[in-house]
Specification:
Blueprint: H1 3-29, H2 35-44, E1 50-53, H3 56-59, H4 64-71, E2 75-77, H5 85-95, E3 103-107, H6 121-128, H7 135-144, H8 148-155, H9 158-161, H10 170-173, H11 209-223, E4 227-232, H12 239-255, E5 258-261, H13 283-300, H14 313-332, H15 336-343, E6 348-354, H16 360-363, H17 367-374, H18 382-388, E7 392-397, E8 401-406, E9 411-415, E10 418-424, E11 430-434, E12 438-441, E13 451-459, E14 466-472, E15 479-480
Amino acid sequence: MGKRGKIFFYSFLCVAFFVMGICFLTNLTDPKYGYGRHSEFMKYGEKCEVLFFGNSHMGCAAYPMELWRDQGITSFNMAGAGNPMPSSYWMMKNALHNASPKVIVIDCYRLRYNTMIDVNKGTLHTQTDPLPLTADKMRMICDLLESPNDRLEFAWSFAVYHERWQELNRIDFEPEIGVAKSRYTGFYDVAPPIEMDERPAETVAFTSKGTEYLRRMIEECQSRGIEVLLVYLPFPALEEEWQEALCMEQIAEEYGIASINFLELQIADLGTDCYDENSHLNGSGGRKVTEYLGQYLVEHYDLEDHRGEAEYADWDEDYRQYTDNKLETLEQLESLDNTLVMLADQSFDCCIYVNGDADLWRQNEMYLPLVENIAGGKTEKLRQAAAEGRDYLLVVDNQEGVFESVDREQFSRACSLGQLSFDVDENGEGRLRLRDKQERKLPESSQPGAEAVRIFVMDNQGDGTVWTKSFAAEETIKVTR
C-alpha cells in the first residue's frame, strides 16, 4: 500500500471511529423515555392486526393486553400524550415501516386544532427519539418543526441531551422492554367530572390542520388496503368538542368508513371512570371502552383469534407479566379510592367487607359508587347498609356472579376465592373464613379505631394468588396490613 493509500485508510478509520463514538454517545445520553415501547413495537409490530393512534385520550382507553385476553386480538397502542393530528399522522407513517395492520383506529379529539405538535416538546421527543433515522422521520421533522435548531434537536438527540452525564443510570445501559403494548397501563385516580354539554342541535362545519391530516391518514390507509375506524372517546365534553365528534362522523361518511361517537353511548360511567374532572378515563373507564372496542372490532373486521397458537405463545407470557404488574401495583396502592378503581377489573375476584360503625360512606362520597362499579351495578343491599350504618359484605366472582350480605348474616358458599363462609363466635366476633384453611377475622364493630374496610383479592387469570388489604377507620383512610 502506497503512502497515499495509507493516508486514506487511516483517515477512513479515524472518521469511522469518530462516527461510531458519536452514535454511541448519542444513544447513551438519550433519556430513553420511549425506548421500552419502541423496542416492544419493533418486536411485535409485524404480528399486530390493529394499531391505535391519537393522544392521551386514546392512551387511556385502549388496552392491547385486555384485547388479547378477551378476543385474541393482536394490537398495539401508539397514542402519544398531547398529539394533535399532524403528529399522529407522522407516527402512523413511521409505524407502517414495521407493521402491516388490518385495521387502524384513530381518535379524533383535538380535531379542530391547528397546531402541529404539542406545546410540550418533551412528549414529541418521547415518541420520535427512538425512531431510526429514515427518510420518513426526516420528512416528519421538517413538516412538524419550523426552527432549524428544533429540527437539529429532533434529528440528532445528542444536541439536546449531551449534558446528561450525571443522570446516567442502569436504564441507560440496559433499556427495559415493556409488555403492555402501550405506553399507558391505566390510571387509578378518580375525580367527579364537570358537567357534560348536550349534543348541539346543529353541526358547525370547520376545517383545520386536524381535519387536513386526518384525511391524509385515511387516504394513506386506504391506499394500502388498511381499514380505518374513527372514534371519539368518552369524557365530559363541551359544545366545541361535541362539534369535533360530529365533524368526525361527517368525514367518516364521506370516506365510507366506520366511526364510533362514544359521547352518545353509555359505555363509561363518568361518575366513577374519570381520572381527572374534564378529560381522561381512569383504569375502570379504559377497561370498559376496551371491552366495547374489542367486541366491535371482531364483529366488523376480519380479525383472527390467535390465542393458543404456538407462534403467539410470547403474547400469553406477556399477558401473565402484565397481570403480575397489575397485582404489584394493586398491592402498593395506599388509597382506598385508588384500590376500588383498580378492582373494577375482570382479572380480579374480590371480597370487600365494610364496617358499618366506621361511617365509611360519609368520609368520601365516591366510595359508594366505586363499590357499585366493582359489582357492575348489581347491588341491592349496599345503599341500605350505607344509609343505616350497617356492616356490609360484597363478594364479586366474575364467574359465579355477585353476592351481598348485611349485618353479619351467616353464610357459606363456594366461589373462585375458595369456600367462603361467615359466622359469629361465642364472643360475638365475626369470622370470615376462606377455603376452610385459614381464618380471617373481621374487625369488631365496637372497637375504637377498628378497620373500616378489609379486602380479599384473587388473581383469577394467574395462579389464583389470594392476598388481603385493610384500611383503617380514620378521617384519612390509610392502608393496614
